[in-house]
Amino acid sequence: MTVHRDPALVSALADARDLPDGPDRLLALERLAERADAAGDLRSALDARFALIEAYLLHGERWRLVEPVRRCRAAADYRPELLTDDEGRLLLRLQRYAVEALLGTPRVGLDQTRSLLDDLAHRVGADGPDASTVAELRCRIADHLGDEPTARHWYQRWAGTVGGPSGGCPGCAPARRAELLAGWGEWRAALTELAEPTRDAVDCTDQPERALVAGLLPELRVGEPERAAVAHVRAYRRHRRERAAFPFLAAHLRFCALGGHLERGLAILAEQLPRLDRPTDDLAAMEFAAAGALVCALAVEAGLGVRTVPRPAYGGRPATDLDVATLGALLLAIANELAGSFDARNGTGHHSGRMAAWLAERPVAAPVPLPADDAEPDAGDAEPDADDGREVATLTIDMITAALDRRGDRYAVDEGATVVGRWGAVVIQFRRAGERGEVLHARAMAARRLPATRRAEAYAFCNAWNHDRLLPKAYAHDLGEELVLAGDVATDLAHGVAPEQLTVLVDAAIATGVAYAEAVAALP
């Protein structure tokens, strides 16, 4: 059958994709999907909704996925030829994401989520490669509702399996299972799940920090506070900066509370409190607030209640300094309100009871010394050499990754020995260049691309950037139909580089690369 395309809609969709990330782009894509539906242009409607789903995921609004995913699925069922094989696999993954949205917010209906999950189960079959994905989702939803027997039933079907195309990150599956086991009080089973990292975990950019966080409380419970302390410091070194790591902060705070590190807990709470105003999802906000309230309650009991924590201005709320007791009461109210919203949607009292149990906890181990925040992950108890950071050495890829580790960034190293990471709207590659690999070369590529028709404007933007700023050197790379706006920073290190100096260079490359990508995103 011929696929009808409306040229005006195709052009409008290209314009909408070219808009800067933000509410205007979301609104334009939503309206385009509706226009395409009305015009009978199913392909344009699919394209608009795929772009809309991508934008929702980028902005941390997974709860909004259910309706566009449902509409994409209905269109694909009506006209299967509209989807390529890759798009078919993508839609399965998006259907999983839409089901998982139930776990993060009470704004998604329970019945519509179950309908999407039943549909997914029907599509993958009882013996297909994604059957374990369905078992995992049924397990996690039952656990979310407080139905532990049903959750354990589905856990048995999920444990030890490898997910199919829609199975989420396989490297994080052991951590997801360990979190469930820890929630059921099976501390040693949780640690066993985390004991043998798979090849997928080695390749996963979220590891090993996610696994370290999943083991924090089990290690405290089984009497290994030293291991927990090392894991906490190493994982928090990265999680303190990553927006996507907000869901892990509750575990860090609970470790501080139950491990007797109240000073550390208050410091983390003060540092991370602004993120509560724009959380990744409601579940993470509830757990962060409850864990923070526990830290505050224990701090008050320890005589630290008169300390103050700054709360920055947000929206119409003025900045203020709150004493620990007042902050604890505020966080408790937030946690209770969100737990009540979940329970009202679910028809249970599970989350209110779970948060109350958290707040009733008390330290389970005497505090042990924490490693220094800037210590290398495997430094153990050795005293750091004060001159280590200033000793000049030949530039290596390991030195570059060590600098990123100290910052707490996540990255991957490809087969060509190029270190690649993403910071907001920019992808940055670090590599060694030059005849002897003596040049540190950083290339920043803005996530936003411009159509080739805006070539003159892109050149003018790059010229203006290069005129006004030193870093990065900006240019437009022509791909035919699209322009990639990129920038380079190159530093000759023929005489070697000290770790402290390399950290400064990496910081500068990332900071200027982010600023460049933000300027590209702000183009009209």
Short summary:
This protein is α+β, with helices and mostly antiparallel strands and 524 residues long. The chain has a domain at 397-522: 2-Layer Sandwich (Yope Regulator, Chain: A), CATH 3.30.1460.70. Helix content is 56%, strand content 10%.
Rg from alpha-carbon coordinates: 25 Å
The gross shape turns out to be globular
Which class of the domain at 397-522 in CATH terms?
Alpha Beta
Low-confidence stretches: 375-387
Name the helicity range.
55-70%
Q: How much of the residues is beta strand, in percent?
A: 5-15%
Oligomer: single chain
- Second CATH tier, the architecture of the domain at 397-522: 2-Layer Sandwich
Structural class given helices, strands, pairing? alpha+beta
Report the span from N to C terminus: 39 Å
Instruction: Give the helix tally.
Output: 22
- CATH fold descriptor of the domain at 397-522: Yope Regulator, Chain: A
Biased composition (Acidic residues): 373-388
Pfam family, one: YbjN
Protein name: YbjN domain-containing protein
Region (Disordered): 368-388
Annotation keywords:
alpha+beta; 10% strand; Yope Regulator, Chain: A; 6-stranded antiparallel β-sheet; 524 residues
Give an account of the 3D structure.
The protein has a domain at 397-522: Yope Regulator, Chain: A, CATH 3.30.1460. It is 56% helix and 10% strand. The protein contains 22 helices and eight strands. The strands form two sheets. The protein has a six-stranded antiparallel beta sheet. It has a two-stranded antiparallel sheet with strand order 1-2. It is globular and about 65 Å long. The two termini are 39 Å apart. Residues 375-387 have low confidence and may be disordered.
